[in-house]
Amino acid sequence: MPKEFQFQVSPQVAASEDLLAQQVAKFCKITPEEILKVVVLKRSFDARQKAVKVNVKGIVYLIGEDYIPAKIELPDYPNVANRQEVIVVGAGPAGLFAALQLIELGLKPIVLERGKEVRGRRRDLKAINVDGIVNEDSNYCFGEGGAGTYSDGKLYTRSKKRGDIDRILELFVGFGATPDIMVDAHPHIGTNKLPKIIQDIREQIIACGGEVLFETRVTDFVVKNSEMQGVVLQNGNIISANKVILATGHSARDIFELLHKKNIYIEAKPFALGVRAEHPQELIDRIQYSCDYRGEFLPPAPYSVVKQVNGRGMYSFCMCPGGVIAPCATSPGEVVTNGWSPSKRDQPTANSGIVVELKLEDFKPYQKFGPLAGMEFQKAIEQKAWHLAGETQKVPAQRMVDFTQNKISQNIPKTSYVPGTTSIEMGEVFPGFLSQIMRQGFVEFGKSMKGYMTNEAILHAPESRTSSPVRIPRDSFSLEHLQIKGLYPCGEGAGYAGGIISAAIDGEKCALKVAESLNLK
């Protein structure tokens, strides 16, 4: 009978099948020659002690036992070309996984994406990076695959209650992701590899009779007697359907404005906002691994820090080891930062959003905008940063220690942010209360991570698109909008997810509820 094992080993042992087999044999009190196969189920790094260890959990099969390699296969998707149609607005993870689930349930998805297909987006990303030109429909936030495609591809969620995480990971593997994502505690595909996977998902949807339409922006909803009837496109065409999954992402401000204009109920939602901090990766490695040189068996070190400052949480967000900072504006006249890492995480710098939780009371100066107050607060900071940095895609920047001391940095070294930086006293970008919390917070961070508080670290502003500033309320059971029957607010943009995995899970949930309402499940 296969034996289970769980222990800690050195990174070198974890990286070698032979050395790991020897350790398993010792743990199970058998000889290495008796082992047929060692299967690792879970793997995570533990850097709490001076010597970094790897937690390994798995199963060992002995000679003579039946070992059948696990093979992850995609569901047997039916052809739905002539089935009932469901509109899915947005081709991010929520929309794409909703579409796949709809097909599995025998419904035809019509996916409407305002941006371009995944490869076509690259020209527009080059334009914003090199020329400072923002395409409002095709950028780091909008386009096939959504914000996660070209901004990192992290595949973990803090909430284990959202749904079946392993199912989503298995689907990613089925579409070409490395099986390692099923094993690693913090799975990551990488911005360089995710586009091909997204493209294969789209091709599967089309092969099954679904539709995926790019550069197709929804500009209005057709509602009759508080029931969805369809959507209006920017060219004036109407696509009719009485089921609409709204999965537009956290930056679709025009959709929030449309809902508000049509008196379709939405509400302001607290979110977090701050800066993106960049350190040399070697420095983070030294801090996290307590060594001068990381070596070949340890990955570039991540970090996670949370502090309470003046009654508010200040924390690291979307930390990118061996990564770069990217320009993520979605309209001219604003600057926004985000971070990403390639699959090898081999860039010389590490960056992380460092953000402060906001409260609804912070949006009082914008209360005339009603439920859009938080969005206007967010927008005002992004526009101010754009103005202060020179009205290009350069961003305000400051050395970390200088920021805590209210000193303008005399020089800013070249950072991974391609459009460039402008030396600014960051307090000019943010409201006073927010600047003060961040100044105190960085000092506290430095106490927890010796060496983190340094002028080698460069702050870029703002990191403002952490989550949606709006929630589109829905019934907790049917997942339909509280007011409009047949409208299913979904994913990050509606306020029900916070990353690729949770958005994908929410997309599947909404698709299941659509099928239930049609008595198909």
TrEMBL record:
One Pfam family recorded for the sequence: GIDA
Record-annotated MnmG N-terminal domain positions: 213-250
Cofactors, names only: FAD
GO MF, one example: ribose 1,5-bisphosphate isomerase activity
Keyword Isomerase: yes
EC number: 5.3.1.29
UniProt domain FAD-dependent oxidoreductase 2 FAD-binding: residue ranges: 86-120
Keywords assigned by UniProt, alphabetized: FAD, Flavoprotein, Isomerase, Oxidoreductase
Occurrences of domain FAD-dependent protein C-terminal (ranges): 270-466
Name of the protein this chain belongs to: Thiazole biosynthetic enzyme
Organism expressing this protein natively: Chryseobacterium salivictor
